[in-house]
Amino acid sequence: MTRSDRSQPKPYAAPILKLLKGAISYDQDPKNWELLLTHEKNIRSHFSDIGLELYLEKIDGYAYLRQTNDEESESEEDLLQLPKLTVRRSFNKKETLLLVILREALLELEDNHPENPPILKRSEIHEKLHPFFPTSGNEVERIRELDRIIQRVSDYGFLRDLKNEHYRIERIIKSKLTVDELKSIRDKFQSVGVMDESISSDPDRG
C-alpha cells in the first residue's frame, strides 16, 4: 500500500489526541485551541460516540474531557459498562490550600487588572502561604517545602512556571474551585491552619 492509499488523519486529530492526554488551553496551546473551536461539532461527536463529554469554556480559554458518570444513567440496564479512561485526583491539604490562594488571587487580578495575564512572583506566593505554616527554626527547609507545593500544583497544570521567578495562574483552576466554594474552605483553613481539608478533582481537569 502506498502512502497515498492510506487514510489521512482528520484535520482535528491533533486536538483530539491532546484532549485524551489532558486539558487544552488557549494560553498554552493556541494552535490546537483554534482547531478545537473550528471543529468543535465534529470533536464533540467523536467523544460522544465513545462515552466522553467535552467541557469547553470559551471565555476563559480551556477545555477538558469528562467521562459520563454511571450514576447519571436512569437504569443500569441502559448503560454500556465502559472502562474508565479518566481518573479522579485528590489533593492533599497543602495543595488544596495553594489552590484556594491561587483562585482568590485570580479573582483579584481579574477584577483589578483584567487586561493583564494573571501572574504572581514566587515571593508573592510564599508570602500568601506563610501565615498557614508554623514558624520553625529551619527557615531554609520551610522555603523548600513551599517550593515543593508550588511545583506539585504546577505539575497538575494550575500554574505555569515562566522560568524567571514568576508564575502564571492557569484559568482552568476555575473549574476546580467555584467562587461559592472559596469562602467555606478558606474559613476552615483560617480556623485550624493547614488541616485535613482536601478536594478531589473531576477527571482530567488538570
User: Percent helix among the residues?
Assistant: 40-55%
Q: How widely separated are the two ends? A: 41 Å
**What is the CATH homologous superfamily assignment of the largest domain?**
MukE-like family, C-terminal domain
Gyration radius from CA atoms, angstroms: 20 Å
Quick one: CATH class of the largest domain?
Mainly Alpha
| Low-pLDDT residue spans | 70-79, 195-206
Principal-axes shape call: elongated
**Strand order in the sheet with the most strands:** 1-3-2
Annotated CATH architecture of the largest domain: Orthogonal Bundle
Fraction of residues in β-strands: 5-15%
| Category from helices, strands and their pairing | alpha+beta
Walkthrough of the structure:
With 206 residues, the protein is of the alpha+beta class. The chain folds into two domains: 3-78, Arc Repressor Mutant, subunit A; 93-192, Arc Repressor Mutant, subunit A, CATH 1.10.10.2260. The protein is 42% helix and 12% strand. It has seven helices and six strands. The chain has helices at 13-21, 30-38, 40-49, 93-112, 122-129, 139-155, 179-192; strands at residues 24-25, 52-57, 62-67, 119-121, 159-161, 166-169. Strands 1-3-2 form a three-stranded antiparallel sheet. Strands 4-6-5 form a three-stranded antiparallel sheet. A hairpin with a 4-residue loop joins β5 and β6. α1 crosses α2, α4 packs across α6 and α4 (93-112) crosses α7 (179-192).
Summarize the structure.
The protein folds into 2 domains: 3-78, Orthogonal Bundle (Arc Repressor Mutant, subunit A); 93-192, Arc Repressor Mutant, subunit A. It is of the alpha+beta class. The chain has helices spanning 13-21, 30-38, 40-49, 93-112, 122-129, 139-155, 179-192, and strands at residues 24-25, 52-57, 62-67, 119-121, 159-161, 166-169.
